[in-house]
TrEMBL record:
It comes from Phototrophicus methaneseepsis. Transmembrane segments: none annotated. This is alanine--glyoxylate transaminase. Belongs to the class-III pyridoxal-phosphate-dependent aminotransferase family. The keyword Transferase applies. It is an enzyme of class 2 (transferase). The lineage of its organism: Bacteria, Bacillati, Chloroflexota, Candidatus Thermofontia, Phototrophicales. InterPro entries: Aminotrans_3 (IPR005814), PyrdxlP-dep_Trfase (IPR015424), PyrdxlP-dep_Trfase_major (IPR015421), PyrdxlP-dep_Trfase_small (IPR015422). Keywords: Aminotransferase, Pyridoxal phosphate, Transferase. It comes from the Bacteria. Its EC number is 2.6.1.44.
Length: 428
């Protein structure tokens, strides 16, 4: 079956809005192993995006796959009307690895649902409806999650939650005028205070943020941003929700969770993606007190199912056993250094930013900060034609995202550097 005929059939039966990457020549996947994906025509690609930071320890990782298969043969699904021991084990693991105050977990099937659970818990705990979140956030695709999302093109149809307020995000590269990181934080804090004073009665349910904005283009806040925001959130009666869907499980290097890089403790954390190396998962963890406020009955048919839990446990234990949180820091530093070398060479790279194994290139018109979406897309397509898969993002579609698996080795890095170099020359 050729790629062309599958693409044609895809277009016949799928929503047009479900458009894949690489417009004219989307990748039609046949199989994948470790750092590689093969398309149906037999071409091999080095994967430096992991299905949007999802395949955290390599495609069909030997150990993870084996343990998943064993579980599949033992018991696949009984729903949460019964207790399965492996769900308890994963919950214990999450409790052990997250900050000490966080003690109670709830499992679902996606990041969207993990965020919905967090919002529900925050509202029930505080009795307030208002959620403050950041511009350029991506939170998922249900009605509430789309209401939280602050990228116009991801807010389809009816964005209906009237209680969401978006405040300025700490995007130092795109401050309205040239400001120092400290001044950007001041501006964000001022905007938060003004939003509270003008659009709320001063009481909120939560402040929700990705420690590093993912879809937004790996926007890293200045170090003290969250420390400055926290007291204001608390003063307004709100809890702090850290959306760790992209930044969790070692991705940022040196710490298990992105928010730990900023020295504050959230009241709620949400996880998905890399937690189960490519299996559908969502997890929300919070304090005993907040969990206690979620009164009534809540039920997700597949949330915490034994197979996904086996994959999650195997993934987390693989990250631990192979020191991948550290590897993400070491390899991430190499990646960063090389990308900065490229920036010195290619004037259309406006900024290199990120943390650990989530690094980005913001593509602009040389000599200005004008976003250059077309060159960014061309760069990503050119990398693919050389056999390397990268991601894109950013409100203006001009940010290239580089996020290899956490177990990326020197040889993969060297290979990727050559291919990125070739793609950069192509689009020069
Ligand atoms: N939060 C963040 C930070 C995300 O990046 C995403 C997915 N890109 C989501 C939530 C939603 O996750 P899912 O697609 O699994 O529903």
């Amino acid at each position: 079956m050729s790629a062309t005929s599958i693409i044609e059939r895809f277009q016949n039966v799928m929503f047009p809005a479900a458009a894949p990457y690489h417009g004219d020549a989307p990748l039609v996947v046949d199989h994948a192993k470790d750092q590689y994906i093969w398309d149906v025509d037999g071409t091999r690609y080095l994967d430096f995006f992991g299905g949007v930071l999802t395949v955290s320890v390599g495609h069909c990782n030997e150990e993870v796959t084996q343990r998943t298969l064993e579980q599949l043969q033992k018991v696949q699904h009984t729903s949460t009307i019964y207790i399965n021991p492996i769900m308890v084990e994963v919950a214990e693991k999450v409790v052990a690895l997250t900050p000490p105050g966080l003690q109670k977990c709830y499992f679902t099937n996606s990041g969207t649902e993990a965020n919905e659970t967090a919002i529900m818990a925050a509202r029930m705990y505080t009795g307030n409806p208002i959620i403050i979140t950041l511009r350029h956030a991506y939170s998922g695709r249900t009605m509430t999650a789309m209401s939280l999302t602050a990228h116009g093109n991801w807010r389809l149809g009816g964005v209906v939650d009237p209680y969401v307020r978006h405040v300025r995000n700490p995007y130092t590269y795109r401050a309205p005028v040239d400001l120092t990181p400290e001044q950007v934080v001041d501006l964000c804090v001022q905007d938060l205070e003004e939003t509270l004073a003008t659009t709320t009665n001063g009481r909120i349910a939560a402040f929700m943020a990705e420690p590093i904005q993912g879809v937004g283009g790996f926007i890293v806040p200045p170090e003290d941003y969250f420390k400055r925001v926290m007291p204001i959130v608390k003063e307004a009666g709100g809890v702090f929700i850290a959306d760790e869907v992209q930044t969790g499980w070692g991705r940022t290097g040196g710490k298990w969770f992105g928010i730990e890089q900023f020295g504050v403790e959230p009241d709620i954390m949400t996880f998905a993606k890399g937690m189960a190396n490519g299996s559908p998962i969502g997890c929300t963890i919070t304090t005993a007190e907040i969990a206690e406020a979620v009164q009534g009955a809540t039920f997700a048919t597949f949330g915490g199912n034994p197979v996904t839990m086996a994959t999650a446990l195997a993934t987390i234990e693989y990250i631990e056993a192979h020191n991948l949180v550290e590897n993400a820091a070491v390899q991430g530093a190499k990646l960063r250094e090389k990308l900065e070398e490229f920036q010195a060479e290619f004037p259309f790279i406006g900024e290199v930013r990120g943390m650990g194994l989530m690094q980005a290139l913001e593509i602009v018109e040389p000599g200005s900060k004008t976003p250059d979406k077309h060159r960014a897309t061309a760069l990503m397509d050119s990398a693919k034609s050389h056999g390397l898969l990268l991601g894109k993002g950013g409100l203006y579609g001009n940010v290239i995202r580089v996020a290899p698996h956490l177990n990326v080795a020197d040889a993969d890095m060297e290979a990727a550097f050559e291919l990125i170099g070739a793609a950069l020359v192509d689009v020069s």
